[in-house]
Amino acid sequence: MNISNIVRTRQCLVPTIRLAPTIRTRHCLVLALMIISFSAVSQNYQIALLKYGGGGDWYANPTALPSLVAFCNSNLATTISPNIATVEVGSQNIFNYPYLYMTGHGNVVFTPQEAQNLRNYLIGGGFLHVDDNYGLDRFFRREIAKVFPNHELIELPHSHPIYHQTYSFPKGLPKIHEHDGKPPQGFGIIYEGRLVVFFSYESDLGNGWEDQIVHGNPEEVRLKALRMGANILQYVFNR
């Protein structure tokens, strides 16, 4: 799906949509209507955690997304639902959510059906944020190649808009958890000029989003993580 232009009516902005042949019309309409405007406070958005197979702990950092949502609603005047959905990769329900969050430490496996379903979701307007919780990297890279076999994960420049929304991160991703002591990196897959996958590596944003008592992060470190997460959500809904 491409939102090619916006037709103004007296009451609202209505997207004119060119449908990708593999996407059902109702899925495109759901995604289009959800991503029109992040700042429209009358709209109560909901985001989702992605459940995947392979044995990895997709459920890691359980307080991360609720904390991020609370931060955004308090500091950005958003009205994101505090109820975080859980959706499976192969489910049609992923089309109900404009932002999917994926995390974990271990193995990931996408079946062919799941890979195709996720691809349809992403090229239809959805967004996947993958947050390496240490150990996810090689498994995720292997599986995302099934979804986009002709697109590489590329490192985003520090000038990319995802780092410069309400909060500015001129050096890119903040370092939240040490892991191997490597510098944090933000990778992405760009499809037809649009960032559809964001992979936060060696940062562990979710670790910083969790309730402070969980990991004992200093408040300034946790604040960096929450602000970067707020930027990601702002970027997704303002595209």
Protein topology:
Blueprint (H helix, E strand, L loop, with lengths): L1 E7 L4 E6 L6 H11 L12 E4 L12 H12 L9 E4 L10 E6 L7 H12 L3 E6 L4 H11 L6 E2 L29 E7 L2 E8 L3 H5 L2 H4 L3 H20 L1
Parallel strand pairs: 3-4, 3-5, 5-6, 6-9
Antiparallel strand pairs: 1-2, 7-8, 8-9
Helix pairs in contact: 2-7, 3-4
Can you describe what's shown?
The protein is of the alpha/beta class and 239 residues long. The protein has one domain: Rossmann fold (3-Layer(aba) Sandwich), CATH 3.40.50.12140. The chain is built from seven helices and nine strands; from the N terminus they run ββαβαββαβαβββααα. The chain has helices at residues 25-35, 64-75, 112-123, 137-147, 205-209, 212-215, 219-238, and strands at residues 2-8, 13-18, 48-51, 85-88, 99-104, 127-132, 154-155, 185-191, 194-201. Strands 4-3-5-6-9-8-7 form a seven-stranded mixed sheet. Strands 1-2 form a two-stranded antiparallel ribbon. A hairpin with a 4-residue loop joins strand 1 and strand 2 (13-18). The model is unreliable at 1-26 and 33-42 (pLDDT under 50).
Can you write the helix and strand succession as a string? EEHEHEEHEHEEEHHH
How much of the sequence is in beta strands? 15-25%
| CATH topology title | Rossmann fold
Fourth CATH level, the homologous superfamily: Domain of unknown function DUF4159
Strand element count: 9
Unreliably modeled segments:
1-26, 33-42
Straight-line distance between termini: 13 Å
Q: Reading side by side through the largest sheet, how are the strands ordered?
A: 4-3-5-6-9-8-7
Please give the radius of gyration in angstroms.
Answer: 17 Å
Q: Return the CATH architecture.
A: 3-Layer(aba) Sandwich
Shape: globular
